[in-house]
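Sanity check

After download, print the first record. It should look like this:
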Amino acid sequence: MHVVQIAPPWFPVPPVGYGGIERVVYDLCEGLVAAGHEVTLFAPGDSSTSARLVPTVPRGVGLDLPPEERTRLMADASSDAFEAAAELDADIIHDHTDFIPDPGFPIPVVRTIHGPAVDYFVRLYRRLTRLGDRFVAISRRQRDLFEEAAAETFGPGQRIAFVGVVANPVDVAAAPFYPASAKEGYVAFLGRSHWEKSPDGAIRVAKAAGVPLKMALRVTAEERPYFNAVVKPLIDRYAPAEFLGEVSGAAKDELIGRAAALLFPSPWEEPFGIVLTEAAARGTPVVSLARGSAPEIVVHGVTGVLCVDEEEMARLVPRAMALDPAACRAHAEANYDRDLIARQYVAVYEQVAAEGRRVSV
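Expected structure tokens:
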């Protein structure tokens, strides 16, 4: 089938550094093309893909823009992509930008929900449901939170039209495997400089556990105040905490793969922690708070440990470091490999295409 993928204009596909949505879109496109489907990707012009690329902007514009300019740029790029996609005779559009098409838009639209069940998105996705769009959650916990919020906001029966739960993909075959003999005794943290990711929590856990910490951290202009006020002082006070900035490619492989464990102290309802599956693919167990999607991704005592608070995380770091890297890799391959996820999405596309663009009430 012919699938159109529409990515945001912020980063190339795949991203050079941090960029969760762009990584998901890249692996999904590659999996679909490998399975023999025709894929057209609307994304920044500096993207690299096996799909047919249609640039929405010359190159990824990043996130260091004023909010009003970001809003305008996203709307313009998405509007142009939808207009062009309507001329392609595609079977399905898979949109990752939350653009609102005209009520009479002719092609069925599937949307992966990448974010949390806050009021703005609950109302937006209910509106898009009424226009006929269909939604995929990236974890059962995310879907449940959206369904609960929609019922509370709009009343019983006023739902968001979910057509499935499909995990984010990871290219397991391309991820180098690091056996126990390759581990170097430190713990790693990768994420944004934001309270949602809790890089400060990672420092506290590593310090309490008495193990060195290596941190790959994105710090945008918006994230700089939090980094300067909360994170940097902790790094400065804990000498074994090494700040690396953003990493990608082989440097990212080495950071994750040679870590004895990866810390995931996210304190909120994380819809899906991609770094959890990236770690598993490289043979690295995780130490995570049992929040959000983590209990669905981490097999306690096999691919990591799930904890109630930072104190328990610190106490269980040695247990996680002793887990079998091969079991982590096997779990990632069996549950999150991009070819498997692509097949699951094709089943969703076929269902939605067969039903057509149904307008709801």
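If your output differs, re-run the checksum step. Summary of this record's structure: The CA atoms of residues 122 and 149 lie 7 Å apart.
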